[in-house]
Amino acid sequence: MTTLVRYLTHPEVDIDPHVPVPSWGLNATGRARADAFAQSRWLSGTTQIVSSGERKALETAAPIARALGIDVEIREAMHENDRSGTGFLPPAEFERVADAFFAEPDVSISGWERAADAQARICREADIVLARPQKGDVLFVGHGGVGTLLLCSLMQVPISRFHDQPGGGHYFTFTKERREVIHGWRRMESPPEDDRQG
Fold this sequence. Notes:
5 helices
């Protein structure tokens, strides 16, 4: 039987310019979406939940783990691309820098971690987890930037923001055995209908 791997991004967060971005937590909408996702019956085959150590990712993973009765494994290196070079940016400025981040993956934009380096890091983390002989589906819980970089690698396409998630709280699915992408980003409210056929 095909083993499925899903990469889920955290939903909406409380944005606070005075708090380091990795310490942002989910807002009320994000918590409600995470709680609802945790009740998805199609997650019943999941035996591993592996999360970034950032607060918003852990708050997304926690209700899912409780519902499934399994622990969350924290892998600190699954964090979002390092943006400490700028810290918080107003939305318009953030979008400009993010566009350049994806467009010039071998360049550090405004002191941000290079996209090429962030991609190598998230792919390495995924490979370490997926090399285990443990049976059952895998759920990674993380972030849109590095999630997109992982998706580009799996699809064997150049890094591009064209493949970015359309908003927080989305997931994509691929097979563990052959690393084949079954579908791209879907809202966490959209259940997979044919994943196992991939």
